[in-house]
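anyone seen this seq b4? input:
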Amino acid sequence: MDNLNELKAIWQTADRCKLPEPGDIKRSIKTFQSQRVRKKWLAIIVSVFFLMLMVGILMFLNSKMITTWVGGGLMALAWIILGLNNLRSLKRFNQLDDCSNREFLAFIDQTGLNQQYHYKKTQLRILVLCVVGLSLYLYEPATHSLAATIALYIITIAFLLVNWLVLRPMMFKRNTEKLNRMRNHFEKLIKQLETNEK
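predicted toks r here
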């Protein structure tokens, strides 16, 4: 029993000035929400821009081969999938306005799961569509000379490999670490507030 009394005495003499204000958590949640919403809108705008660019190129390009049309269509489909995915995710972030601290932690956990799904499934589909589309799209201009064909495909394959093997895993790791740091930070703040209220 003596240990319990000592623990209680230590607990009551603990410095409480380091505890966060409830408004600090609310501001942090709003900052997180606004940063993510801004990124989602940027991805949507970029998707729409490249979709319109691809459609415009296909309309005004006097292509004689069907491969160019199919390749352009596949790349346009990839941009549509990316835009719709971010639009759906944007809807989720707009529902974040009125949530409790625990609901926000659950939201961060769900965001982490969504990031994994996007990395393993959605991004894979988008990249496959882009690779196949780009390969077909570049076939017609590359048929004019063998040297141009080889150079064009080497550059394209190198670019895609760097994106697939270097940039994509690096971005996923960085985003996951950032989300985990944020989750740990909010969990610590919430625990501090809950223990302070008891």
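DSSP finds six helices and no strands in the chain. Helices lie at 2-12, 22-60, 66-94, 101-137, 139-142, 146-197. kinda curious what u guys think
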